[in-house]
Amino acid sequence: MNVFQKKFTAIWPNMSAVGSVQLIDQRFLPHQMVIETVNSLEGMAVAIEQMHVRGAPLIGISAAFGVAIAAYRVHEETHSPSNWREQLYAAIARLKRTRPTAVNLFWALEEQRKILDGTQSLLSAKEALWSNALALMEDDLHACHSIGMHGLKLIKEIADKKRFDGVIDPIVNILTHCNAGWLACVDYGTATAPMYLAHDAGIKIHVWVDETRPRNQGAKLTAWELGQHGVPHTLIPDNAGGHLMQHGMVDLVIVGADRVTRTGDAANKIGTYLKALAAVDNHVPFYVALPKSTFDGSLRDGIHEIPIEARGGDEVRFIDGISITGQCVEVLICPNTTKALNYGFDVTPARLISGLITDRGVCSATESAITALFPDI
Q1: Are 192 and 330 found together in one domain?
Q2: Which of 25, 258, 296, 346 is catalytic?
Q3: pLDDT at 213
């Protein structure tokens, strides 16, 4: 996507150092554009845990590169390279412990484990794991573009209907929650991919951007990337979405997902469930955008089976930003003795979802429709 008129992806191979990658450290956005070089297993594990990178698809791709990077570091980090295979299995285990909810992490690590199982030497493992990480990265890019193309049709239908109803030069108002943009993927994003393609196709859209407390990924990330690409948008408090829907100011809701069951229940950033309730009550279409890697075919009951990450309470108690003097500051917003509960995700039941926008097409959030498109989940 465009950043200061330059094309960027969220992660890319480091051309100046073999066996390492570079990524946008999203903790500093939108105020600073910081490029981080990751050249160790632990560096990648920390980047995922501490949300230098975040978003289900990008977590998966980053983890895949983490395994490949670990292979390049075997000789440097141990005096017994003969047990290289055990070390790489341990690297996979380390990365599995970084984040619990996004299934793309476990999918990507399983893909790398299959590659590792088929290698006969450390040299072949390095080459195969790196090549597979690159292939997964390319697949994610194409999957997000396909999501965009399928979602574009939905946006176009709304614009055409408004025009048919007599609206001259209609604008499609879309609400999104958190950041399911190119910063959450390799490029394009999931929920934002249809928005970018619609904008680029000349369809007038406007995006309502939830701030997404407590980490404010909407305010910090989604608003930033939409602005960089020139997409009209407005930042709103998380609690404003229902009011906007009641007054006909939202035509469509599109969100991303971190894990979707085979029956269509979708885990996404905390607060998504409330948006779905408001959308259903106001007859606003509510769609979840995701690639195949976000499906968890082993689960049927999202509310009871999807693991929900509980993060540190300080993410709720403190907020960071730029002061009026231009300094990056972190401030406490509650009494110092106040405890905070910080669930990172909630689950939207399939019954509240109008449809799933996937890389293979749009389908209803039902097991029969999902498995018809994805018999391989």
Answers
A1: yes
A2: 258
A3: 96
